[in-house]
Design brief:
Number of strands: 18
Number of helices: 15
Strand order of the largest sheet: 2-1-3-4-9-8-7-5-6
Helix content: 25-40%
Distance between the termini: 38 Å
CATH architecture of the largest domain: 3-Layer(aba) Sandwich
Strand content: 15-25%
CATH class of the largest domain: Alpha Beta
Structural class: alpha/beta
Shape: globular
Length: 519
């Protein structure tokens, strides 16, 4: 794959023959990219304004979005440019409505917003719905609906009320009112596969090939310069460190003990890297981080403080290092909405997306080889390099550490409560065989004190919150139905062994609307 550039993951693959996903701001847009990769093809996200950057795509998908096509400043598309590629096009939700307008049809506001499951009743002779049931559940999320159809437009599916929910123009331009990328659309994967089968020249996505190309391009990009790589012991930075180590570049791997780590984590991280033959340097900056966070309660400000200080610590440790390597993943880029043209909302600023990092990117001093990948793809990449299973399948740990599990001001006393409670929770999950069944689990602090009774005396202490979730890629998550007896054992141990807490709660929130972490 010639011409790779490792700045932000957006140009890490050749643009020819990939599936170009045009982002109109839907919360599900990144899932389209993921589903396409799961079907074995390269995909990349573009804003509508970046259509000119698309070079010889294999297919194009227009995503859904929160806006209405009737708004004066609604996101648009250069339709002449779009059809000039002569490749299959699929419009999803907003994308379908936009295609209908561009081909001469109209869209009108609906009397009510349609959100949730609906029945798809496809035409039997449509290639897009080959192998799809006569009545299949799909997921709707829209308020506008198509009205007048342009000449040459064909209705290829309706809902149970007879309303058109899928259209076709010509041989290979389609529009669907529902979201095939979400699991709630039971046969969405089949529909996407049928669409991609209309494109004869799609570039394949193979993690082994991707790894070899990454190593080649890392060597070309870094050259003789020194690159600093911050490691936390988490999956992302560990895979990045081993990738740089395998590439043989001049790299220093810095592990920062920021005082926001889990119990005994520093020693565990050092032991794991020793097992993999990667030498790391440890910098104890715990006092520096806690002092910087003193008195701060705003989640976004705390994240920015931590992210900026990480960079300061790196540069203090290595002096005139010429480059910075980060384990940024695709969801980090999407949630931070760090692309100024992005139609998506900022969910939260990741520590590797703070202003200083973005400025370093502009100077060509940042490489983020994993920024094109989701978490499970990073694990597959790590497995291809021989990283031990127990290291690869450690639960994800946020870059800002326990600070995002400690709402309000971060103090050492609160962190100690979280650390001790978390250690009990995780060890009990391992004992009961539930650790590997959870995608992520942790204990956090609820910054509210409640009255309790300990040793026949009144106590007034914090509440501890337990969270265990299952997820594919951190973009959506569901809570784990842990056995009551396991939760009872964890609760009893925390209440008896951890000083400063007198109440244990279990979080049964999904993402969305909640996030995985507390902040």
């Amino acid at each position: 794959m010639p011409g790779l550039h490792l700045y932000d993951g957006r140009d890490m693959i050749t643009p020819q023959h990939l599936v170009a996903v045009i982002d109109y701001g839907s919360q599900y847009t990144q899932l389209i990219v993921r589903r396409v990769r799961e079907l074995g093809f390269l995909a990349r996200l573009y804003t509508p304004e970046e259509l000119d950057e698309v070079v010889e795509p294999g297919a194009i998908i227009l995503s859904g979005g929160p806006r209405s096509t009737s708004e004066p400043d609604a996101p648009d598309i250069d339709f002449a440019k779009l059809i000039s590629f002569h490749v299959p096009v699929l419009g999803v939700c907003y994308g379908m409505q936009l295609l209908n307008i561009k081909t001469g049809g109209t869209v009108r506001p609906s009397n009510k917003r349609e959100y949730g499951p609906a029945a798809l009743l496809p035409e039997s002779d449509c290639k897009l719905f080959e192998g799809v049931s006569a009545s299949s559940q799909v997921w709707m999320s829209h308020s506008d609906t198509v009205d007048h159809l342009a000449d040459g437009c064909r209705i290829i599916a309706r809902n149970s009320e007879g309303v058109p929910v899928a259209l076709q123009w010509g041989e290979s331009m389609f529009g669907i009112q529902f979201h095939p990328e979400v699991t709630h659309s039971h046969e969405g994967r089949t529909i996407l596969r049928n669409f991609l089968s209309c494109a004869p020249h799609l570039a394949p996505f193979d993690i082994g090939d991707f790894r070899r190309e990454l190593i080649t391009e890392i060597r070309q990009k870094v050259g003789d310069r020194q690159v600093v790589c911050g490691v936390s012991g988490g999956v992302d930075s560990t895979v990045l460190a081993v990738l740089l180590h395998e590439a043989g570049v001049n790299a220093r791997f810095i592990f920062v003990d920021n005082g926001l780590l889990r119990k005994n984590e520093a020693q565990e991280v050092q032991d794991n890297f020793r097992r993999m033959g990667v030498e790391i340097e440890t910098v104890d900056a715990s006092d520096r981080f806690l002092e910087a966070l003193r008195g701060e309660t705003a989640p976004e400000k705390k994240r920015r403080i931590i992210g900026t200080l990480f960079i300061d610590v790196f540069w203090d440790a290595v002096g005139d290092a010429e480059m910075l390597a980060q384990g940024t993943l695709y969801p980090d880029v999407i949630e931070s909405a760090s692309n100024a043209k992005s139609k998506a909302s900022v969910i939260k600023t990741h520590h590797n997306r703070v202003e200083r990092v973005l400025k370093l990117q502009e100077q060509g001093k940042v490489i983020e080889p994993l920024a094109f990948l989701f978490k499970d793809e990073v694990r597959a990449l790590g497995a291809s390099m021989g990283i031990p299973h127990d290291i690869l399948w450690r639960h994800p740990f946020p870059g800002p550490g326990l600070a995002v599990r400690c709402p309000g001001e971060v103090t050492k006393d609160k962190l100690d409560i979280i650390r001790d409670s978390d250690a009990i929770f995780i060890s009990t999950l391992r004992k009961w065989g539930w650790y590997d069944k959870c995608w992520q689990a942790y204990a956090g602090l609820i910054p509210v004190k409640t009255v309790g009774v300990k040793g026949d005396e009144r106590s007034y202490e914090f509440a501890t919150n337990l969270r265990a979730i299952i997820s594919e890629d951190a973009m959506t998550a569901d809570w784990v139905q842990l056995p009551y007896d396991l939760l009872r054992e964890v609760s009893n141990r925390i209440l008896n062994e951890v000083k400063g807490t007198n109440r244990v709660l279990y979080d049964v929130s999904t993402k969305p609307p909640a996030s995985i972490e507390w902040e």
